[in-house]
Amino acid sequence: MLKDSSTKLRIDSMLIFSIIMVVIFIFVIVVNAMSKVGAFAMEKDINIEIKEKVLESDFEDVLVAYSDNINYEVTPASPREKISSRAATARRNRGESNNYIPVNEVKISQTMDLNVRTGMSKEDFINLIANCSADTSGFFEENAGIIYDLCEIYSINEIFFCGLISAESGWNIAQNHRNTHNYISLMSGGGLISFSTVEEGLESAAKTLHNNYLTPGGKFYRGSTLEGVRTIFCPVNPGWTSLVYGRMCQII
């Protein structure tokens, strides 16, 4: 009788142990499933919007989603969202604070260093451009956000960048510049280089200025002032410096 009781006790212990292990196994599966979808669903049909993850180091788009019995909609990041994300990263990498100055303290001059930002916030810059009466086409107001972000990425003064675009394309953005999305007259083979989108055209302008004209060692670098840029950018027009600076003064 004692032997039978001992045997039964061992069997009961094994049974309890097995039940515990099964419960743990089920719990692990549930937790793993929750981590994959990012939320636990009590109902079968759930709509989930998943934003694209941008790997800023390589500018590649990577999206990972799990769809076990869940309906989800993928919303890719727009070109402007990607640029905005890169601008935020550039600011963090430079260790810049958010201690912005008010618009009425922003200073410009004809001999200013074009690599130095204005110091105003993005919101203030957008409002400044929105109130610029010279912007007859609305192009600058429409693109103020991306202009600010590109100047953040490439360390370009925002007022200068807008002044240059205006000087080269006009406040109304001439049709040939509008058609090619080429806003600072980048040339190849005697004609304007064509870009596919506004975003591509503006970024190519900012990148070219930064790499070739405003950075020591750049192939067209002659100093980071208006006159230094003019030396190679527009050597046949001695009035180019005054033209660009005049457009800058129309903004602020």
Care to describe what's here?
- 51% of the residues lie in helices and 8% in strands.
- It has helices spanning 2-37, 79-93, 122-130, 139-142, 144-154, 158-169, 175-180, 198-213, 226-233, 240-251, and strands at 47-51, 53-55, 60-62, 71-75, 187-188, 191-192.
- Strands 1-4 form a two-stranded parallel ribbon.
- Helix 2 (79-93) runs parallel beside helix 5 (144-154), helix 5 runs parallel beside helix 8 (198-213) and helix 6 (158-169) packs across helix 10 (240-251).
- The radius of gyration is 29 Å and the shape is elongated.
Properties at a glance:
mainly alpha, Lysozyme, two-stranded antiparallel ribbon, two-stranded parallel ribbon, 6 strands, 51% helix
What's the layout of helices and strands?
Blueprint: H1 2-37, E1 47-51, E2 53-55, E3 60-62, E4 71-75, H2 79-93, H3 122-130, H4 139-142, H5 144-154, H6 158-169, H7 175-180, E5 187-188, E6 191-192, H8 198-213, H9 226-233, H10 240-251
Parallel strand pairs: 1-4
Antiparallel strand pairs: 2-3, 5-6
